[in-house]
Amino acid sequence: MIAIQPTWTPERVEQLKSYFEAGLSCRDIAVNIGVSRNAVIGKLSRLNLSHSAPDGKRRLRKKKSGAPGERPTAKQQLALLHAVYDQKADDAPIVSANNCSLLELSEQRCRWPINTPGADDFCFCGNTPLGGMPYCSGHYRLAYQTGSRQRAARG
Predict the structure, then answer these.
(1) What is the pLDDT of residues 123-152, one digit of tens each?
(2) 146: CB partners within 8 A, 6+ apart
(3) pTM attached to this predicted model
């Protein structure tokens, strides 16, 4: 019969405490001890150890985004959507005159994929996207179809 070894041996618990006191993240502790991050979080909880501030309030993470107002708000996105769909719907093909590779892709270029990934001629549209959105106006209409258009496309 095979004996199952406990996950939290006294040595691992001591390592956990020392790493915790040193200020390592749960992920780093897990890698060093050889257990999952969730196991570390659970054990810290059972040992009543936490990284909370002295007054008991949790610190909020700062947003990693750039300058405020860089991304459109929900109202601005809705206004863009209405502006795109209020345009006369033409069935003319979308001209992607600024094709770019994955390495050239940025927030200032339409991210609509052209062709099949892995193909020699695979690229992205590259046209100028709608204010802060991922696609140009033509690809925006394809990506965010209204209910009636979705049914027509499927039907």
Answers:
(1) 999 888 877 778 887 887 777 766 655 445
(2) 85
(3) 0.40
CA distance 144 to 4: 53
d(CA 152, CA 99): 29
Are 29 and 16 in contact by the 8 Å Cβ rule? The answer is yes
Closest CA to 144 of 71, 90, 134, 107: 134
Kindly compute the dihedral angle of the four CA atoms of residues 44, 49, 51, 53, in this order, to the nearest 10 degrees.
Answer: 150
Q: Give me the sign of the Cα torsion angle 103, 109, 112, 114.
A: negative
For residues 140 and 133, give the distance between their C-alpha atoms in angstroms, rounded to a whole number.
8
Q: Give the length of the chain.
A: 155
pLDDT digits (tens, 9 = 90+) for 13-36: 998 998 898 888 898 888 888 888
Question: Rounded to the nearest 10 degrees, how much is the dihedral formed by the CA atoms of 81, 85, 91, 95?
Answer: -30
